[in-house]
């Protein structure tokens, strides 16, 4: 069963939003990635593990480059599951979400994919290019395996689409703060807040906010009105910035994550 | 044709409400898009549905197709080529005679009218060979819309004349360096830009692929090809063709020709780019060598590895150098209504030269793939039979590539005039 409900309950009891951190599996290579994921996992409530894909059309330059590094260094889907399992063994209580594009599980077969995900200790799956309308491919299988299906909402989502997402989503709703790709600049805070409030009138699921959260200040503002703050490109960006020394990479991600964690607890 | 061609405006063989073309239990097509694009895509679908039911939309579209583009394009009985091949009569549908030199403009006129109806002031597009980019830049110039064209750096190199044309037309050509720097990456980049600017920007998708409603809409705008060809063949030859042949990149010229012929007793042949050979691993034959997958918003055949990573493709023609294919063609193949064929780089180069010398028509390298296969098919048929080949574009844009391959030597040099 998915651990996500427990994670949000715990955060709620501590009267804070959840910190959700993203890194691409295998970035910059499988071995280093293991250290980085283990480091980030210690600081976050939910870890999103990106499945590298050749054509990441919803990602900005930072996460595109992460996918390219991971694939160039020979990361396979089997490595992604192994990395998830390693993280799970060291962190029995955090949430683990696999994030990526439809073609990865589609080609593997959703059943096979789900089986391996669950046995690696994954709680949920977020596929950016499978909207509720195409959920016929994965929804019944994820449900059967007890995997939560995270759905995105965005500034362009109408009330009708919010209701639709609520019907198909489980775990949490991921509100994309802007019309754009990962790593863009965050949208205007009052309009994000309004939209989150609006989404809450249609769902009982936790509502988390991501895309564009780069500073602790932004994280703390978002934490005030959301159930979780997702930080991706800001963490991923530490990898090329410290490319020469993997020790420094780990330290940098640790520091960046600690700063975010403090910001949302304040 | 001196009188106006009367087009059938009904929508035949429509996908389901979600844009799925069903075949053998697989739902090809659909709308595999990021949430941010779902509402904009719904708006385009609604605008298309409204426009298609609006006689004024068609009046303006068909007037432009006639007086600006030059439709109906001729159907040409290529007697010299027929004699050279020795077999069935070869008829060429002359999409190369469209304004801008390819079929692509049928679609860009339609979508630009739609963009204007929707109040969008800016259009973007991806391009491979540059033909769709040119066709988009052209209508953007005419409609006075701002226009950005995304093009892989590798394609910019291969198709320099078209890059210059787009710039002359006032478009901004944005080089794409990500991935393999070809058409698929240009689509990725255009999608990224569109997500961020969907409020004021319309994405003119260039082939019968992508998320619903693009495969349906692009097909509808291109069915003028098959509708005309069918009537012209009946008029000129007194009967329908036995075989209809088109090259396949994303599938727009193919579905445009073949869709209006699918309810007749006609063999429908899709010709893919075999590059260095279907067994070489360096080709762009998604239907022949791919398997179902999801990219660029729809489920269709795709060249991918066993983990779903999209594979690099190769074709001498940039317009066919794409790892995917439109979902409707995939469904037609799956249902057994579409025959597959392919032509290698060398086959295409050969056909390019044969047509040029036999008929004085220089075909696009894309279209040369259809010619190569079509000539092969015709050679094995009887003189009382007809092979209809879609000549989707003209070859001016490819002269540099062909010069390179054939080792052109300028023997006029030093000769005084
Ligand atoms: C002349 C010509 N034919 C064919 C194609 C392939 O596209 P499609 O398969 O959409 O017709 C192109 C694409 O650029 C083209 O320029």
Short summary:
In chain A, strand 4, helix 7 (139-145) and strand 5 form a beta-alpha-beta unit. The model of chain A has no long low-confidence stretch (mean pLDDT 96).
Overall geometry of chain B: globular
- How are the strands of the largest sheet of chain A arranged? 1-2-3-4-5-6-7-8
Strand residue percentage of chain B? 15-25%
Task: Please work out how many helical segments of chain B DSSP would assign.
Answer: 15
* Count of separate DSSP helical elements of chain A: 13
Biggest interface and its residues per chain?
Answer: A-B, 43 and 41 residues
Main sheet of chain B: which strands, in order across? 3-4-14-9-10-13
Globally, the shape of chain A reads globular
What's the story with the biggest beta sheet of chain A?
A: 8 strands, parallel, barrel
Structure notes:
The complex is a heterodimer of chains A (266) and B (417). Chain A is α/β, with parallel strands linked by helices and 266 residues long. Chain A has helices at residues 4-13, 30-43, 61-72, 77-90, 103-108, 110-119, 139-145, 159-168, 189-200, 216-225, 233-236, 238-241, 246-265, and strands at 18-24, 46-50, 95-100, 124-127, 148-153, 173-176, 207-210, 228-231. In chain A, strands 1-2-3-4-5-6-7-8 form an eight-stranded parallel beta barrel, surrounded by nine helices. In chain A, helix 2 (30-43) packs parallel to helix 4 (77-90). The longest helix of chain A is centred in the last third of the chain and has 20 residues, at 246-265. The two termini of chain A are 31 Å apart. Chain B is of the alpha/beta class and 417 residues long. Chain B has 15 helices and 14 strands. Chain B has helices at 35-52, 55-69, 79-85, 104-117, 131-143, 153-158, 160-168, 183-197, 214-237, 252-258, 286-289, 327-334, 345-359, 365-379, 399-406, and strands at 20-23, 26-29, 75-77, 89-94, 122-127, 146-152, 172-176, 201-203, 243-247, 267-275, 291-295, 298-302, 339-344, 386-391. Chain B has a six-stranded mixed sheet, sandwiched between helices. Chain B has a four-stranded parallel sheet with strand order 7-6-5-8, with helices on both faces. In chain B, helix 10 (252-258) links the parallel strand 9 and strand 10 (267-275). The radius of gyration of chain B is 20 Å and the shape is globular. Chain A binds chain B through residues 53-60, 64, 68, 71, 76-77, 101-104, 106-108, 128-131, 133-134, 136, 151-158, 161, 165, 176, 178-181, 184, and chain B through 18, 27, 30-40, 178-179, 184-185, 187-188, 191-192, 195-199, 291-297, 299, 302, 304, 306-310. Bound molecules: pyridoxal-5'-phosphate.
């Amino acid at each position: 069963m998915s651990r996500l409900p427990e994670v949000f309950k715990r955060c709620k009891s501590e009267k804070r939003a959840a910190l959700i951190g993203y890194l691409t599996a295998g970035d910059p290579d499988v071995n280093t990635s293991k250290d980085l994921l283990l480091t980030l996992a210690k600081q976050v409530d939910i870890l999103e593990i990106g499945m590298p894909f050749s054509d990441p059309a919803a990602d900005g330059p930072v996460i595109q480059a992460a996918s390219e590094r991971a694939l160039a260094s020979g990361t396979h889907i089997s490595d992604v599951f192994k990395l998830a399992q390693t993280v799970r063994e060291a962190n029995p209580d955090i949430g683990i979400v696999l994030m990526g594009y439809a073609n990865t599980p589609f080609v593997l077969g959703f059943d096979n994919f789900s089986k391996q995900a669950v046995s690696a200790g994954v709680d949920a799956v977020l596929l950016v290019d499978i909207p509720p309308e195409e959920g016929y491919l994965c929804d019944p299988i994820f449900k059967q395996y007890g995997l939560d299906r995270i759905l995105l909402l965005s500034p362009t989502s109408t009330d009708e689409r919010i209701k639709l997402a609520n019907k198909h989503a489980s775990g949490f709703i991921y509100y994309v703060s802007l019309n754009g790709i990962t790593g863009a600049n965050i949208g205007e805070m009052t309009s994000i807040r309004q939209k989150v409030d609006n989404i809450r009138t249609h769902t009982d699921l936790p509502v988390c906010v991501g895309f564009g959260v780069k500073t602790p200040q932004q994280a703390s503002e978002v934490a005030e009105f959301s159930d979780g703050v997702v930080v991706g490109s800001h963490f991923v960006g530490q990898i090329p910035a410290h490319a020469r020394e993997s020790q420094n990479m780990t330290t940098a991600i640790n520091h960046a994550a600690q700063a975010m964690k403090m910001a949302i607890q304040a | 044709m001196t009188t106006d061609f009367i087009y059938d405006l009904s929508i035949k063989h429509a996908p389901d409400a979600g844009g799925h073309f069903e075949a053998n239990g697989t739902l090809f097509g659909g709308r595999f898009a990021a949430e941010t694009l779902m509402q904009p895509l719904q708006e385009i679908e609604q605008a298309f549905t409204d426009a298609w039911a609006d006689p004024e939309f068609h009046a303006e579209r068909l007037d432009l197709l006639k007086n600006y583009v030059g439709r109906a394009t001729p159907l040409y009985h290529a007697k010299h080529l027929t004699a050279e091949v020795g077999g069935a009569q070869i008829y060429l549908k002359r999409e190369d005679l469209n304004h801008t030199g390819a079929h692509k403009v049928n679609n860009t006129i339609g979508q630009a009218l739609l963009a204007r109806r929707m109040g969008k002031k800016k259009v973007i597009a991806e391009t491979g060979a540059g033909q769709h980019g040119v066709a988009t830049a052209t209508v953007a110039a005419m409609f006075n819309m701002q226009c950005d064209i995304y093009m892989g750096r590798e394609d910019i190199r291969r198709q320099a004349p078209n890059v210059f044309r787009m710039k002359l037309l006032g478009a901004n050509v944005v080089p794409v360096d990500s991935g393999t720097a070809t058409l698929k990456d240009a689509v990725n980049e255009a999608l990224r830009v569109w997500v961020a600017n969907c409020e004021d920007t319309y994405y003119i998708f260039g082939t019968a692929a992508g998320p619903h409603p693009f495969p349906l809409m692009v097909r509808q705008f291109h069915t003028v090809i098959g509708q005309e060809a069918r009537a012209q063949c009946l008029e000129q030859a007194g009967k329908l063709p036995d075989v209809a042949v088109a090259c396949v990149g994303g599938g727009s010229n193919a579905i445009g020709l073949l869709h209006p012929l699918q309810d007749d007793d006609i063999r429908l042949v899709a010709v893919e780019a075999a590059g260095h050979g279907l067994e070489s691993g360096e080709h762009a034959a998604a239907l022949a060598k791919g398997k179902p997958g999801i990219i660029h918003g729809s489920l269709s055949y795709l060249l991918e590895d066993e983990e779903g990573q999209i594979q690099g493709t190769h074709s001498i023609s940039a317009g066919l150098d794409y790892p995917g294919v439109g979902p409707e063609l995939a469904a037609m193949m799956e249902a057994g209504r579409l025959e597959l064929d392919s032509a290698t780089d060398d086959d295409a180069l050969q056909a390019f030269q044969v047509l040029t010398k036999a008929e004085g028509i220089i075909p696009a390298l894309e279209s040369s793939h259809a010619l190569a296969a079509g000539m092969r098919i015709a050679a094995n048929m009887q003189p009382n039979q007809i092979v209809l080949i879609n000549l989707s574009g003209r070859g001016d844009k490819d002269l540099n590539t062909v010069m390179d391959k054939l080792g052109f030597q300028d023997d006029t040099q030093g000769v005084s005039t």
